[in-house]
Amino acid sequence: MDEVDVMTRAGENVGKAVGTGLKAARQGVVRAGHAAEAKLADRGITTDQVRGALVERADALMGKAEDWEKQTRRQRKRLAKKSAQTRADLIGKAEVVRKEVKKAAKHARKDAKVRAKEIRKAAAQLGADAPKRRRWPWVLGLLIAAAAAGYVAMTRRPQEVHLQEEEQVPHAEPVLNGQVPSQKEPIK
User: Fold this and answer.
1) What is the pLDDT of residue 95?
2) End-to-end CA distance of the chain
């Protein structure tokens, strides 16, 4: 069998099953409706009264839903207003605290300066009472050490070493009146 035929038959079978199911459901609803009408008639209630009661109940539920929506809208507005007020209060309080901290820091800096001045004054008084150290022997020692290091550095300077000895090339003798003397004759 071809797949198309199989799928077509499967669709037809499902369609028949759904159709019969829907038909049975409709018939069941009609039977239930007739049974409900019979029971309501036994109690003396008509279908119009049931419809009216359902409409009234639906209206009541809609009214409650609208009231709830209004109430939540009001609550959201109240909450937004309250949060804005709280935020403004916190910002105001933070500003006040910031100013107070700024003042306290300013006073603390002034007090620290005064105390530091007093401490320096007390240290200067203690230092004035103590004998002063002489520093010139150290300076003299440093000068002697520098002179010795300079002397050693100058004496250990490397000598110039020639890697190749230069050969002395005889210089050409000057030309006198266009003649080059072959040998120097001793002047008498």
Assistant:
1) 92
2) 148
With tokens 């797949």, the residue in question is 3
**78-137, pLDDT tens digit by residue?**
899 999 999 999 999 999 999 999 999 999 999 999 999 999 988 888 777 666 667 678
Cα–Cα dist 38/52, whole Å: 18
Question: At 187, is the secondary structure helix, strand, or coil?
Answer: coil
Q: Note the pLDDT of residue 153.
A: 84
| pTM greater than 0.85 | no
At 135-160, the pLDDT tens digits run 678 788 889 999 999 888 888 766 66
Please, are residues 66 and 74 in contact by the beta-carbon 8 Å criterion? Answer: no
Neighbour count for residue 37 (Cβ, 10 Å): 14
Work out the burial of residue 31: count CB atoms within 10 Å of its CB; fewer than 13 is exposed, 13-18 middle, 19 or more buried.
Answer: exposed
Distances (CA, A) of 91 to 77, 101, 170: 21, 15, 103
Bridge partners for 176 per DSSP:
179
The shares of helix, strand and coil residues in the chain, as percent rounded to the nearest 5, are 75, 0, 20
